[in-house]
Structures are given as C-alpha cells and as structure tokens.
Amino acid sequence: MKFTINNRLADIPPLADQVDAYMTDEGVSLETIMTTNLCLEELLTNTIKYGYGDNRIRQIDIDMRLLDGELTIEIVDDAAPFDPTSDAQTPDIDATIEERPIGGLGIFLVTNFTDSMQYNRELNRNRLILKKRLAQNM
Fold it and tell me: Given this structure, which CATH class describes domain 2-133?
C-alpha cells in the first residue's frame, strides 16, 4: 500500500488512520498497528520539523508491504540528509528523567520496535527502510 503526505504535521493523523485501516484489513495485531503508527509518527515528525529549511510544500512517500509474515515500510523524502541509523545520538536510558535532555528517545524506540532499519541517500532523497517480522498469528 502506498501513501503520500505533505510535509505538514497535520498530515500525520490522517495517515495513521489509513495505516490502521490497511493493517486491520490485513489481519495485523492491534499491538503491531499501534507500534507501527508510533514509529511512523516519530520518524515523520522529525523529518517535518527538522528536515526542511523552508515553508514549501513537499511530499513524503510511504510504501508499506506485508509479505511472508514480514512488514516492510519504506519512507522517501527530499528533506536534508539524515541517517537515523548512524546520525542519531544514543540516549542514556539509565539517566533519571531530570538528567535526560529533551528528545532523543524516538529513534531509540523505533529501533526497538523494528527488526532492522536501513538508510541510504540517492538522487537527493532520503530512503529509510524498516522491517518487522510479524508473529505467526499476526
């Protein structure tokens, strides 16, 4: 299933509704749907808030595939280059809430909710591929 949103935060909730409907139709568990939408919200929010240096409307493409018990999500955008697999700082999860800086947990959560995350930059576009093996009964 392919989705396209504009680089506006207001476009994320309608996308979540579409993802929910698609994954429900495919028989995916509620837990997986919720974690998938959390990952998408985190990644797309970061892209929209920090990846664009102007107010021009741009498109972000999301391609979701369910095949042989594996969910693959590909996110493609023309925001500034950012590799969450290497550029994001690892948060100190042992620090107290008072010691921890604001932010930094989102990509950590995405890596924990997925089995793999792969990034590349081609033709001035970020391409992030997430994979999640689904339980047998989804």
Answer: alpha beta
